[in-house]
Amino acid sequence: MHQRLLPFAVAFVFAGCGGPTADAPKGSTALRKVAPGELRTPADFAGIEDTRARSSALFLEASRVLTHPRCVNCHPNGDIPHQGMNMQLHDPPAVRGPDNHGVVGMECTSCHQDRNQELTRVPGAPHWALAPIQMAWVGKSPHEICEQMKDPKRNGGKSLAAIVEHNAHDALVGWGWHPGADREPVPGTQEQFGAIVAAWVESGAACPAKGARP
Amino acid sequence: MSVRIRVNGVEKTLDVDPEMPLLWALRDVLGLTGTKYGCGQALCGACTVHLDGQVVRACVTPVRRADGRAVTTIEGLAPDGSHPLQRAWVELAVPQCGYCQAGQIMTAAALLKAKPKPTDDEIEQSMAGNLCRCGAYSRIRAAIRKVAGMPEGEQ
Question: Which residues contact A177 (CB under 8 A, 6 or more apart)?
Fold first, then answer.
């Protein structure tokens, strides 16, 4: 990247990497523009020379997936899952239950199967369940999700390597790209997302600034 | 594909499409028509059965999921109709049209087996997925409370 552009680019990636924000100069963009359904690759961030800035920018890119309703709906900040792009409360009424799998008579797997049921539109994937309340993402910023994701007390005791593996290969995570019916998938592919998360970890797993948005 | 299911205590081998809804297998193949088809989308609870004791909506459960497992339908809950819930249902004249009642009873049976003394909130949460278009909810709850030994009239 041209040296004169670097401060501009760093400022932009701290503010967000999906498009111009109120904090970023209008019309400027340091990163390749992508369609809403597309994810950037780690190579798109190679021009950010400052490692911490690059790492933060990579997480912001990952947060385009993490904050998508398809993911957030089952990371509620209360005891009721959400559904749909408008994130309405789950209907039929379902609750978290003692182990995040619902309550007797209304377990998640009373209805959700190990794969999507296309004729009935009921979404499904292996081990369908809510994320524990410690992993609540509804209403959380990329910064907050990043800090949570790195905290073993709030990430299920996972190492950063395990976080990469989980995001890159877990079947329930992977449902986000194959939600079935007419549901909007999260951006990119799980392979691309795994590569972004791996690059974030390899670059130091820095978290974006508190106000940063993709 | 052959699917082996223990249905109401009896081993059955079904030569069916593994993706066939369990409800179809129960009603159309095995002739167990006590379990009802309501919405077909796991939204009403009319098709509720137990799979290894867990409540499932048979209309969206592929029969392959039941392979090698035990399914209990309303016919198998108590073949002579003597389950405490069935007796309470009769005593309190719970049903109106009755279409949803098999599902209601199967969910309530799973609840009371897991929690013989549920709270009112627990009853509400567990029964929330079983709709009754006649609106017999107050009698359904009363029957569950009766079997649980909860005081009448304090709901």
Answer: A185, A186, A188, A189, A190
